[in-house]
């Protein structure tokens, strides 16, 4: 189960009531800076925008690839450890607006984590240190440290000290031949 806070709403669906939960000015400001960061090829500048403008907690040497989409309404609920890679076009959400309620949850991504391209991370999820999330995954629950997960629905593929092969690895050379 994800760790989310639930807030019931009366009347039309929760998305119609979004501006009673977050200010329009904050939403527009966040949208502009998130779009700048999505296209920015300069990692230190991108991390500066995330830290200083959006209030995210970003560790040293963390790399957000092009087109990563962080939550526009509550980016300050995202924290990422040191030396982590967030793959191309990944979406990190900290809110869900549903018919009768909206939900908010922190997203915590550990250090030395690799998130593959086109992954979606839902609110209230923690991804442990040294985990690997394969491309195209839907992260709908916590990922333990040192786990290799993937798919939709996401499942654990392997756990333990995962070592990424190098180009010098004999198995990699055999696969390429």
Layout: helices, strands, pairs:
Blueprint: E1 5-8, H1 24-39, H2 43-53, E2 57-58, E3 63-64, E4 69-70, E5 78-80, E6 85-86, E7 91-92, E8 95-97, E9 101-104, E10 107-109, E11 114-115, E12 120-121, E13 126-127, E14 132-133, E15 138-139, E16 147-151, E17 154-159, H3 170-176
Parallel strand pairs: 2-5, 3-6, 4-7, 5-10, 6-11, 7-12, 10-13, 11-14, 12-15, 14-16
Antiparallel strand pairs: 1-9, 8-9, 16-17
Helix pairs in contact: 1-2
List keywords for this structure.
3 helices, 6-stranded mixed sheet, 177 residues, alpha/beta, globular, 4-stranded parallel sheet
Written description of the protein model:
It is built from three helices and 17 strands. The protein has a six-stranded mixed beta sheet with strand order 3-6-11-14-16-17. It has a four-stranded parallel beta sheet with strand order 2-5-10-13, covered by helices on one side. The radius of gyration is 17 Å and the shape is globular.
- What's the helix count? 3
Radius of gyration: 17 Å
Give the CA-CA distance, first to last residue: 44 Å
Helix content: 10-25%
> What's the main sheet like?
6 strands, mixed
Q: Ranges with pLDDT <50 over ≥5 residues?
A: 171-177
Category from helices, strands and their pairing: alpha/beta
Give, in spatial order, the strands making up the sheet with the most strands. 3-6-11-14-16-17
Beta-strand residue percentage: 25-35%
**Extended strand count:** 17
Task: Spell the H/E element sequence.
Answer: EHHEEEEEEEEEEEEEEEEH
Can you give the mean pLDDT?
Answer: 92
Q: What is the overall silhouette?
A: globular
């Amino acid at each position: 189960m994800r760790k989310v806070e639930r807030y019931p709403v009366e009347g039309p669906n929760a998305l119609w009531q979004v501006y009673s939960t977050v200010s329009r000015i904050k939403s527009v400001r966040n949208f502009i800076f998130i779009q700048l960061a999505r296209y920015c090829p300069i990692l230190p500048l991108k991390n500066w925008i995330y830290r200083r403008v959006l209030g995210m907690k970003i560790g040293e040497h963390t790399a957000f690839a092009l087109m990563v989409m962080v939550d526009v309404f509550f980016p300050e609920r995202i924290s990422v450890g040191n030396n982590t890679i967030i793959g191309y076009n990944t979406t990190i959400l900290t809110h869900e607006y549903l018919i009768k309620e909206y939900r908010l949850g922190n997203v915590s991504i550990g250090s030395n984590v690799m998130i593959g391209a086109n992954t979606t991370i839902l609110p209230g999820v923690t991804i442990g240190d040294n985990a690997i999330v394969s491309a195209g995954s839907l992260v709908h629950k916590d990922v333990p440290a040192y786990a290799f997960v993937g798919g939709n629905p996401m499942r654990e593929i392997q756990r333990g000290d995962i070592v990424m092969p190098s180009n010098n690895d004999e198995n990699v050379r055999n696969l390429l031949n």
